[in-house]
Structures are given as C-alpha cells and as structure tokens.
Amino acid sequence: MSPPGPQQDLVQRNPDGSLTKETLKRAMKAFRRRLKLTREEDENRLGHDAMTSGRKSAIVGIKPPEQYPQEVWDALVELGRLRRIESGVYEITEG
Fold this sequence. Notes:
The protein is an alpha+beta fold and about 100 residues long.
C-alpha cells in the first residue's frame, strides 16, 4: 500500500509546466474508481440484497484520492470535468 499524500511520480508535466493529459486522465480514473467503491460500500451498508427494493446510493460527491495533489483537482475543475460541491468534495460533471 502506498503512503498517504501526493505522490510526485504520478504527476507528470509538460515542458511549459502544465499537467500532462495522461496525469489528468489517470486522476479522473482514480476519482471514478473511488466514487464507484464509495457508492458500492454505501449500498451494501444499507442492506441491499436481491429481496429488497434495490435502492441506489445517493452519494454524488467524494473527497478525491490523496495520491494526487490539489493542483490536479483544481485543473480538472477548470476543464469542467469535476465540480466542487463543498469544501474538499467534488462530483463528476455531466456531459
């Protein structure tokens, strides 16, 4: 397991200092995976099984994975891929 906090080897930069497309793509993939797992945990905790109503999780936003620095999440907000919904919590934008 990796240590908590940003890992600089995950963050690659273009010669002009901006974040690479690959870095942003990996960060979005990590965000989606964390959101999916969080929703699944919530659904399991609510006692969903084959005999219940099958209600979906109401979770729409999460704190992003810590292995990427705040700068990456800010860049994804600027690009319109994520939306900040409260302090430190983000959701995926539609479209």
